[in-house]
Design brief:
alpha/beta, 9 helices, 19 strands, three-stranded antiparallel beta sheet, elongated, single chain
Length: 349
Amino acid sequence: MTSTSSPFALFRLPHIVLSEVFNSTTPDEIIRISLCSKRAARIIKYTSSKWKKRKDLELVLQETKPSVVQYEEFPLLSVSHISEVEDHRQLVNMKIGESTVPMDTSNMVTYWKDKLKGVRSVMEYVMDIFNSEIETFDITEDATSSEIHYIFQWMAKRKTVFSVCILNLNNVTTDDLNFFFRNIQFNETVCLEGFLLPKTYRYQRNSFWTFPRGLINAHNGSWMRMSHLLRMNCLNITVMDVPFTNKEINCFLKKWQAGEACPLLNYLHFGFTKLLNLEEIIEGLDGIKVPDDIIREYKIGMYPGKNIPFPGGYDIKRNDGTMATVCIFTFPQIPQTHLKIAVSPELAS
C-alpha cells in the first residue's frame, strides 16, 4: 500500500500563525520562501516577525567575490556578473524586483549583465521583504572605484542615517571621498581602512565628524588637522599616523579640560610616526603623575572583555570634575609613539 502527501498550504494559515512560523525560520529561509511567487513575497512582507525593522541588514561590496546582502551571519542574496557563471545547468530564472535573472539556488548567487544594477535591485528587494534599511556597509579593498561611486550615490539618495561603515580607501577617488563626507551620515561606527588615500586628497570642512557616533577608526590620519579633531563628536577615536605636534595635543587637552572639545569622548588612541614628549603634552594641565612602573588596566565600553593597559602617565581633571588618564608608549627601535586617553576610566579588577 502506498501513500501520497499533499503540499502543505502554508499561506492559508491565519496571520498570527504565519507570524509564528516566520519567527521560527532563519532570515535566509525567509528570502527563499519569498522568491517562490509574488504572493509569497507579498504575504511575507505584510506578516509581522522578529526579523522585521531591525538594524541587521548589511551589504558587503566586493569585486573578486560576489557582493552579498546578509542578515547578521546569514547570507541572503549575492550578486555576480553573468560572465562569472561556471555551470549554466545549475541556474534557474528568478524575479528580483523588476528583473528576471539567473540564480544558482544552491548558494543564492544571482547573475547580472549589469552588476551595479544587480546590487541595487538585490538591496532594494531584501529591504522590501524585511521592511528595514541596510544600515551596515562593508566596502572591501577590491571594490572598484565605479562600484564605490555608485553605492555612495545610492546611499546619499536614501537620506538615511546609517549605522556602520567599514570603508577601504584603496580605490576611492578624492571626489567620491569628499562626497561621502558631505552627504552620508553614520551614528555608530566609521572605519576608514587602508593607507592609500589619494595623494591629492584634502579634507573639506563639513558636518560629518560633528555628527554624534560611537567609534571612528582610521588607518591613515595624515590628512587630519587639529580643527578636525576639535570638531569630532565621538565616544571612541582611534587614528594612526596623525601629524600632530606636542604643542597641538597640549592645546587639544586644554580645550577638552575647558569643556570646549570632544564632549562625548570616552577613549582616544593616536599613532604618531615620530616620538612625543609627555611632559610637553600635559604642560599647564595640573596633571597628577602616575609612576612609570605602574600599569593600570581600564575597561573601555566599546571593547567589552578587553582591558586597555595604561603605563604610567598623568591624571587630569576637566572643569566639570570628569577625570581622564593620559599616557604614551613607544616600541623599541621604532620611531613611533602611541598616545592613549581614557575619560572617566573604570579600573579593571
